[in-house]
Amino acid sequence: MSTFEYSNLRFNFGFLLEALPGTSREIELNYPLVKLGGDVVLFPLTGTFKASRTTQGIYFSGELHSHISAECARCLITFDLPITIPLDDLFFYPPHEAPEGEYVVKKDGQVDLAPLVREMALLSIPIQQICREDCQGFCVECGQNLNEFDCGCQDDTIDPRLAGLKDFLDKLAP
Ligand SMILES: [Zn+2]
Ligand SMILES: [Zn+2]
Description:
The structure is a single chain. The protein is an alpha+beta fold. It folds into two domains: about 10-125, no CATH class; about 135-174, no CATH class. Helices cover about 15% and strands about 35% of the residues. It has three helices and eight strands, in the order E-H-E-E-E-E-E-E-E-H-H. Strands 2, 3, 4, 5, 6 and 7 form a six-stranded mixed β-sheet that branches. Strands 1-8 form a two-stranded antiparallel ribbon. A hairpin with a 3-residue loop joins strand 3 (about 35) and strand 4. The relative contact order is 0.17. One zinc ion binds next to loops.
């Protein structure tokens, strides 16, 4: 598991490891900005999660809310995409061996949630993210960003004063 230089999602759960299975603690997050591995920046990161002691380690569940910078699939602007990050994962604690690819609680009780939050944040981004429901994207004819103004290329309705001209042009180039 890679470590991140600037994680403010590192917690000490030593107290929970000493508690009986079933013991839990609610933790509220409210960070203006969280960097996760450099390429993923969440702003802000809020929400509540529960850390529960289980016989195998610590189970994290909850829901975080944030925004991530994304590029609109239609008009290509960069915008702040709201995302919901579900947490639902067991971190194994020695002597329970973590299966390949699973997260672990370090021997000293430290847990870094950054890799999990990063993974879930990336998974929460839809493949076709759009800046807004009615984003018009670009005109396929002239490349105009149709959110700025309508270039008119794709208008099916022709100004009646130009209808005659259109008929004439259609005859020239059917
Ligand atoms: Zn757009
Ligand atoms: Zn156009």
